[in-house]
Write a structure and sequence with these properties.
single chain, mainly beta, Penicillin V Acylase, Chain A, 7-stranded antiparallel sheet, 6-stranded antiparallel sheet
Length: 216
């Protein structure tokens, strides 16, 4: 995932935009992981993990974004897709040998706290997201990012977010919904949008398959 917008309060709201190569197989949200009972998310069929996991019973969600920094060694590298699953299921911070993972940002959201964990290949840092509306991108909480500068004020001012992502895909660096055709012919694009709302009494998870919308 390349963009996550978080609004604290009631409801606690997260909206994620997943950008990926269009030829990487995936499936929509469900309880796909018997080892993490009750956790819902879309599944990456290549590596088996997810980019946004929701644990409705615990009123907890975790979102994963690729980060910047030193890549993991190829001989020991493992997929980052299990990080959001474990965080949503257990509520714990990333732990163990993180050197196996490429850089990442992991947002762990509960009704009491929203925590951002960032691994750059050498060091894990952690910080609470501020009250209000925040946008996390591949650089982390970066107020100078073109995407943040272009879109965070819009999300901060709006009460409903869905219409803010109803845009034509663009290759512009500041675009929220992207589509890039690479020299080798592969396409990197925004594939789906997820909006999660958590309250003490309810959890909602709205999923939009952008590839289906483009095919209509």
């Amino acid at each position: 995932m390349c963009t996550l917008i978080v609004r604290t309060g009631r409801p606690l709201t997260l909206m994620g935009v997943r950008d990926e190569f269009t030829d990487r197989p995936w499936e929509g949200p469900g309880e796909h992981w018997p080892e993490y009972p009750g956790v819902i998310g879309g599944r990456d069929l290549k590596a088996g993990g997810t980019w946004l996991a929701v644990n409705p019973a615990a009123r907890r969600a975790a979102a994963l974004l690729n980060g910047r920094g030193r890549p993991a060694p190829e001989r020991t590298k493992v997929s980052r897709g299990d990080l959001a699953l474990r965080a949503a299921y257990t509520g714990d911070a990333p732990r163990g040998d993180l050197s196996r993972y490429d850089p990442f940002h992991l947002v762990l959201a509960t009704l009491e706290r929203v925590r951002l964990y960032s691994w750059d290949g050498d060091r894990l840092s952690a910080a609470d997201l501020p009250e209000g509306t925040s946008m996390v991108v591949n650089e982390g909480l970066d107020p100078t990012s073109e995407r943040v500068l272009a879109h965070l004020p819009r999300f901060t001012a709006a009460t409903a977010w869905r219409e803010l992502v109803a845009a034509e895909p663009s290759a512009d660096p500041g675009a929220l919904i992207v589509r890039h055709e690479l020299p080798d012919g592969r396409i990197f694009a925004s594939l789906s949008v997820m909006e999660v709302a958590l309250t003490p009494d309810d959890v909602t998870y709205d999923f939009t398959d952008l590839t289906a919308e483009r095919d209509r």
